[in-house]
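Show me any protein, fold above all:
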Amino acid sequence: MSTIAAVLQKHQGEYHKVVDFDPAKDKLLHLDLSSSNAELREADLADTARFTAYIDHKLQGAAAKFCIGGYAENRTLYRRSELFAGEELRTLHLGIDVWGPAGTKIYAALGGTVHSFAYNKGFGDYGATLILQHQLDTWQFHTLYGHLALKDINGLIQGKYINRGELIGHFGEPAENGNWPPHLHMQVIEDMRIYQGDYPGVCALSEKAHYLANCPDPDLLLGMMKYAS
């Protein structure tokens, strides 16, 4: 476990919920979007409307409030966008996705400042994106919230302080979230390097060790995966 992961684990129980999920009454469905999911071979995930219908079908079939999953998951679905192409296709997902209705509220897991934000509008990109900077036990790290509603980054100011539990965004519609079914991509990043308003959310398998070390499991903050079935 990396040092920042150990720090995040130490403070578990102190973080605010990121979405309105009550494990006492809400159902959470684990969504497998890995290359081993046979259902995806039949689904046209390049078509955003059909991809959205697939997610909606999973939610409704399980009577779940949200679907969740994806950390360190190898996903061939990234063939849907040229964004992930190259000498080696980027397929390893570095965050956790929470899938649900557009407009779902998103809260800051802990206090921090606005590091940067951007509208990454290419097909398959993050769409509206917010990155916060935090410090725990003298360790600095960042949280990335991707696929937001465009209104959520309008009027933001770099360096603004965000309180723990403050409303920071909403699940965006496909037209503003990079052409994905509505969801939140949440990622923890230790070293942002020179990135502003963006950071790779998917890497090539050959880069797995480097990126997973810099991007520990967001469930250390979310605390939701234990409720998924």
Notes: The longest strand covers residues 127-136.
